[in-house]
């Protein structure tokens, strides 16, 4: 049996939780003040996920880089692979916030979208 202490990041409360794990399975979660903490702890132990924020090169834009974000969470262990993939992506201005920049990145079922408008440089 193993015990881990973690802070919940699901709301501003930041509850400190004690998670008990046995043979890779979460047995109990204590210290959370809402059900979101329990779910977060179980997910974080068994299959951690993260949002990805990055930039891609943009041609003809007002700036050389376009900020992008994953439309949903990605498996934590694949974040670096996704970031490396985005280093090779090039788009053309203009781009609107929410435009899909990479559809279904690395076959993970998550789109990468523009997180700001980027007008064309005159």
Care to describe what's here?
The protein is of the alpha+beta class and 122 residues long. It has helices at 35-46, 79-86; strands at residues 2-7, 16-22, 25-30, 49-50, 53-59, 65-70, 74-75, 90-92, 100-102, 112-114. The mean pLDDT is 96.
**Beginning-to-end CA distance, first to last residue:** 63 Å
Shape: elongated
Structural class: alpha+beta
How much of the sequence is in beta strands?
Answer: 35-45%
Instruction: Give the number of helices.
Output: 2
| Total beta strand runs | 10
Which stretches are low in confidence, meaning pLDDT under 50 for 5 or more residues running?
none
The whole-angstrom Rg is 19 Å
How would you characterize the largest beta sheet? 5 strands, mixed
Sequence of secondary-structure elements: EEEHEEEEHEEE
Physical arrangement of strands within the biggest beta sheet: 8-5-6-10-9
Return the average pLDDT rounded to an integer.
96
Helix content: 10-25%
